[in-house]
Specification:
Elements lengths: L3 H15 L1 H20 L4 H10 L4 H11 L4 H11 L2 H13 L4 H9 L3 H16 L7 H4 L1 H29 L10 H11 L6 H16 L7 H39 L1
Length: 261
């Protein structure tokens, strides 16, 4: 019993550590957001408040742009909702891992769910599935601590560097043209590619990338949601196909062993 808190804490540290490449990549992205919010006429407190209370990355960029153009609030809310629909897909895939947790903890995890944390946690889940912990499944039981370590690291990082962007935006003109946000793309590639361990994963990645390239100009980033849905369908179809092909082989192998016996 005395070891459990230290093990849980270590899981949180591991989550933050594995998120480090994306933390570094998110720094310029957050700075650009803060600077952009100031350049679009938002007050410092409003710009920072969005990072504290919304914590939505790309949606904050969109919201700032729409606010600056005096777009009606219902349109802003609807647009942000559509852009964030992908998080419903993320949450659905993680549901079985958190069903046993108290509601208040689920709320915290839902608020802090990001693309980065989802990528890191999904990679961790795949690692545990390939190499189950022995003798006790402690890593599976404490996965939410790993998640929170990643999520809270991302949250602190985003808020801090958004504040830095707000301060720099007041001093340095036109920072948004520097292209600093490309670091996030590079980091995502570094996280995702090592996780592509089989044909289904590669098919999902190629499908999503191809669809995104053809739908990049769809309004309100709906192309991203469409690409994700198509990739999921392709992945599920291939996984089902491979399992169907494997089953007869296993049956034949078992029959052969029984005959030999």
């Amino acid at each position: 019993m005395t070891r459990k808190p230290s093990v849980a804490f270590q899981q949180g540290i591991n989550g933050a550590r594995d998120t480090l490449p994306l933390l570094v990549a998110a720094m310029p992205f957050a700075i650009v957001y803060g600077a952009m919010a100031i350049s679009e006429g938002l007050s410092s407190w409003t710009a920072l408040g969005m990072s504290v209370m919304v914590f939505a990355g790309a949606s904050q960029f969109i919201a700032v742009t729409l606010l600056a153009s005096s777009t009606a609030l219902p349109i802003i809310l609807l647009t942000v909702f559509v852009v964030n629909l992908r998080h419903m897909l993320y949450a659905t895939s993680l549901m079985s891992k958190v069903v046993h947790l108290p509601q208040r903890l689920k709320i915290i995890m839902a608020f802090t769910l990001t693309d980065e944390t989802y990528a890191v946690v999904s990679n961790r889940i795949h690692q545990l599935q390939r190499n189950p912990p022995h003798p006790a499944p402690g890593d599976h039981q404490l996965l939410h601590y790993y998640y929170l370590g990643s999520a809270l690291a991302m949250y602190s990082n985003w808020v801090f560097f958004s504040a830095a962007g707000v301060l720099l935006g007041e001093q340095v003109p036109d920072m948004t043209s520097w292209g600093l946000d490309v670091a996030m793309i590079v980091a995502f590639v570094g996280i995702i590619v090592p996780a592509l361990k089989n044909h289904s994963y590669w098919a999902c990645a190629i499908t999503a990338g191809s669809c995104a390239a053809f739908t990049f100009d769809w309004p309100n980033q709906t192309g991203l949601l469409f690409s994700a849905l198509v990739a999921i369908i392709v992945g599920i179809t291939l996984e089902t196909l491979f399992k169907t092909q494997d089953s007869p082989m296993k049956t034949d192998s078992n029959s052969f062993r029984e005959t030999q016996g």
